[in-house]
Fold:
Amino acid sequence: MKFVPNRLLLWVTVLLVIPSTTLVVLGGTAATLALLFCALLLAGALADLAASYRLLEGLRVAGDELLRCTKGKEFAVALRFECSGQSLRNVCFGLQVPDAFNALDHPIMSIAELPADRVVAVDYTLLPLRRGRYFFESVYVETPSRLGLWLIREKKELRVELRTYPDLTRERRRLAALFLNRGADGNHVRRQVGKGREFEQLREYLPGDDYSDIDWKAMARRGEPVTRTFQIERTQEVYVVVDHSRMSAREIRTPLDEAVRAGDSLLAENIEHGAGGDYVVSTQLERFLHCSLILSSVAQRQGDLFGFVSFADGVDRFIRSRNGSNHYNVVRDALYTLEPKKVAPDFEQLMISLRQRLTRRALLVMLVDLSDPLTAESFYESISLISRQHLVLVNMVRPEHAHPLFSPKRIPADSDEVYECMSGHFQWQELREIKKRLAHLGVELAMPDHESLSAEAVTQYLNVKRRQLI
Structure:
């Protein structure tokens, strides 16, 4: 509980008390009256403070224990004020807001009247700037004393947990066709590529059957050729494996004008000003998390089981594959607090853990950065532990300058940019060699641009499902 002089008390002091003290110098009756006036004013101020000191003790402030919002989209925190015993007037309050939020309204709001034993709800509008988990723990409240000479202030405890999730609007807009709830209109027969991997039954051999489908043991028992038939698997397991080690913190710069046209919510997070123009700065991990949530939504609509794995110097989070909206919320709550770690990735431990935990063949979409040669070599040596059992797709965000020397992506304007383009060409060549080496192990490496990462991963997943490669 704190108290400070109000404006009324300050004006009375300036206009009456200070002139009255000058009469003390004159002595006599004027000095006595001046001292008596100052004493009465002081006694009245102290009496007002004593009568109003506990005004805010009966005030209670509460809010929802758990709130969810989306990064870059404004939302309102509903605060409920209840005063027991007596009513209050001109109550001002301010919410202690973390640095990850901007207050859209005035930081200090006021309530004209709080009736006794009644609940008054007030919305405090905020704009989230970063994803993550935050807590609102206190509210500062202020009200004038009964005579208005003092301001009584108190800090009220508040228990509100706020979860800020990534904004997927831009990715969903690119993949709008996958999120449309269509009816049966326009359905047509589409050829299914692949024969499936789930055993259905045995039947007699027919001319044209593949020799690899012949069941030799059954043929030996029956004395005639027997063919195994398979049915199309409708439910498959899909896991997204996200690397949040040091390489995931690689910056991704988007020109400011392009971000504004796209309506990118990253605009509110970090803007870099430089001689080459203004850029919106993000990290590769942000794109990985967006891609994970998009794949989760698509797998849910396709009826597949979706799981999530995150790792750095060890496996951090492992969520077993399931389906349904509740499972999507579980995955979202598991990844929205991920931050890059300043450690090197331990691929060997990751592969051993996946081999032990995943006994059924699954599609593994790995989101890692292999632009570092040492990291790429470590990944190549470890991936063989799981590449024979599972289908592995590797995706990374293409580095900004990793393009062929004579690519139309960037035409050098001067000699300095020529050397920069040559450096990007060498990096592109190294990534191309890594892609060829992984292809020999049955692992596909894709390097889309950052804005196409989610679309590329979804396209790969749908092609795998259509061809029944799992």
